[in-house]
Amino acid sequence: MKKRYLPDLAKEASVCEANYWRLQRLLPDQDRLDYRTLEVHHGDHSAAKINFEVLDRFKYTLTLLIDYRVQNLPKSVNSLRLIVRMYHDVNMAEVVDCEKGSQLDGIYNYPNKTMYHIDEKSQLNLFLAECLSQCLSHGIENELVFKAPSDKP
C-alpha cells in the first residue's frame, strides 16, 4: 500500500515566513512601490531578470506578480510567473497561484490533469525562497516605479 503524502507544516510555515522577510528587504517601499525590476548577475553576465509588480494592497495583505525570466534559454522554458500573497498580520508570504491560472492546493492527487506534483505548492514556495535569496545576493536594480501621490488626505 502506498504511503500517503503529509506536508511538514512547520517547514512550510518557516519557508513562508522567511520569504516574507526576504520580500520586505527587496521591497522596503512596498506601500508606495508599484513595480521593480532586478537583474541577477553571476560573474560578468546577467543570468535572470525578475519583475515584481504589486497587483493589490489591502490592510493586511499585499499581492505581487513575480515574473522570473532566465536569460539565454528558449522562450518555451525561460519564464515563470508567480502570484505571491504577503500576509502582514502573520509575517508570511506564499505562492497562491502560478502561470496556469488557478489557485494552488496544498496537496494534489497524482496523477492529475494539470500535471502538478503532489507537493507542487511546497516546491513553488521553495523555488521562491531560492529566487529571492539570489535577488538579495546577486541582484542589481534596474527600475523602480512608484504610484502617483494620492490627492486624498
What does this structure look like?
It is a single chain. The protein has 153 residues and is α+β, with helices and mostly antiparallel strands. Helix content is 24%, strand content 37%. The protein has helices spanning 9-26, 120-138, and strands at 33-42, 45-57, 61-70, 79-87, 92-98, 139-146. The protein has a 6-stranded antiparallel beta sheet with strand order 5-4-3-2-1-6. Helix 1 runs parallel beside helix 2. It is globular, with a radius of gyration of 17 Å. The model has no long low-confidence stretch (mean pLDDT 81).
Distance between the termini: 64 Å
State the assembly state of the protein chains: single chain
Strand arrangement in the largest pleated sheet = 5-4-3-2-1-6
Mean pLDDT level: 81
Strand content: 35-45%
Order of helices and strands: HEEEEEHE
What class do helices, strands and sheet pairing give? alpha+beta
Q: State the domain count.
A: 1
Rg, please? 17 Å
Strand segment tally: 6
**How many helical stretches?**
2
Largest sheet: 6 strands, antiparallel
Share of residues in helices: 10-25%
Query: What is the overall silhouette?
Result: globular
- The parts where pLDDT drops under 50 for at least 5 residues are none
